[in-house]
């Protein structure tokens, strides 16, 4: 269990995927370029097996955890984490209405 104060430390923002491609020499990693309302970041995610055509993600908006320390995956630096439902395959969370990139989830 975490406290409400711990939860408030999480900065979750809506980002729009600008580019999506399989990370070179990996089986499971996608390399995303994501716009957070004027700030672009590279996000590395282990969802490649569920998205054989990563282009289906381009132009879509998803929630991302953005105040997590950068982390290296197979030589690629990830500057955040995409949030998805972890089932048999990842299920992406998509806002029901159009929202501005960079919008904070509270």
Strand content: 35-45%
CATH architectural name: Beta Barrel
Largest sheet: 6 strands, antiparallel
Q: What is the ordering of alpha helices and beta strands?
A: HEEEEEEEEEE
Domains counted in the coordinates: how many? 1
First CA to last CA: what distance? 19 Å
Helix content: under 10%
pLDDT < 50 runs, ≥5 residues: none
Which structural class do you get from the secondary structure elements? mainly beta
Question: What's the CATH topology name?
Answer: OB fold (Dihydrolipoamide Acetyltransferase, E2P)
Shape: globular
Highest CATH level, the class:
Mainly Beta
Round the mean pLDDT to the nearest integer and report it. 96
Number of strands: 10
CATH superfamily: Nucleic acid-binding proteins
Number of helices: 1
Task: Outline the structure in words.
- The protein is mainly beta and 106 residues long.
- The protein has one domain: OB fold (Dihydrolipoamide Acetyltransferase, E2P).
- Helix content is 5%, strand content 42%.
- It contains 1 helix and 10 strands.
- It has one helix at 4-8, and strands spanning 12-22, 30-35, 40-45, 61-65, 71-73, 76-78, 81-82, 84-86, 90-92, 104-105.
- The strands form 3 sheets. Strands 1, 2, 3, 4, 7 and 10 form a 6-stranded antiparallel β-sheet that branches. It has a two-stranded antiparallel sheet with strand order 5-6.
- The chain is globular, with a radius of gyration of 14 Å.
- The protein starts with a helix and ends with a strand.
- The mean pLDDT is 96.
